[in-house]
């Protein structure tokens, strides 16, 4: 009887091992539903099977069922306190779900039991930065949120094992969290504008390099335009320095010898974060031409509400004899899974060198086209690749603009553009 009992135990153990191996293989191939069925059978026979529960939690996390994943991870960490892989997977599950506060709580617990763990410390720095800057997803100097991506079910999981862990195998998807943050980005932009009368199509291109530091980001850029048979190049650089915990700035300088660009342009804004997810800014623009200089005062009011961002910006251009011109622009964005993925729309109207007849992004093209009345509507969509952090952005817009030589009469213009950015 003892021999028969021993044989039956071996058969049961082998059966559970085979079920888990099959579940592992199915998860590896992306067949999550079948893998979960097999894991449920394993757990029905052995609730203490940590390998099976870890794999089940990971599958829930990959599929975006973060609460179910949290429940499974909690069942493990409440009993096994020193398993490094399970703690890291549980923390990343909260980061995928954008539960920064919960992730920080898990990190503190993990560090209590694991002591000095370099990966957990790295995740702590990341989540603290996210909490501090979560109100600024559109800023160049903070893109950590974009590095936290939900992993698709088709991602190939990998096996990770550390000597001494009670759970021998923990499976998790490949994700940017598993590598160092990407701090550089090269962007290439091409766009064109088509007019319904008089003007030939205008072409605009640019190439930029963004480098992110702990103090902010630096973005040198080369702009090229071709219009009315003339072309030109402009060089500029933008800075986004972080001045204090809730204060940052935007600085820009541009230079060109081409007639379709100003000789020099300077821009600056200071942004303040206020309670209630409100953001205020104030600054100015100074544009230098061969024959005149133009000064513009600008300010903005922004508000973050859930996944939405609203920004209202005004431009005030002082002129002699009480002829000051005012214009405004309203921007609305809905952020999707992170700060690099969003849908947006903007509407602008009024008089301003920033809202002018012939434009390339926000660049002034010609001195003679200042103080022209216009109305414009633009749509934008930015998204990242499914299996890469590279960024794509498309935009399309329509503008009704006053003719510079015929006050009171207007023409129509349609613009479209595509930007591709590579992160490394």
TrEMBL record:
Residues 183-354 form the YaiO beta-barrel domain. This is YaiO family outer membrane protein. It comes from the Bacteria. It comes from Saonia flava. The lineage of its organism: Bacteria, Pseudomonadati, Bacteroidota, Flavobacteriia, Flavobacteriales. It holds the Pfam family YaiO. NCBIfam families: OMP_YaiO_dom (TIGR04390).
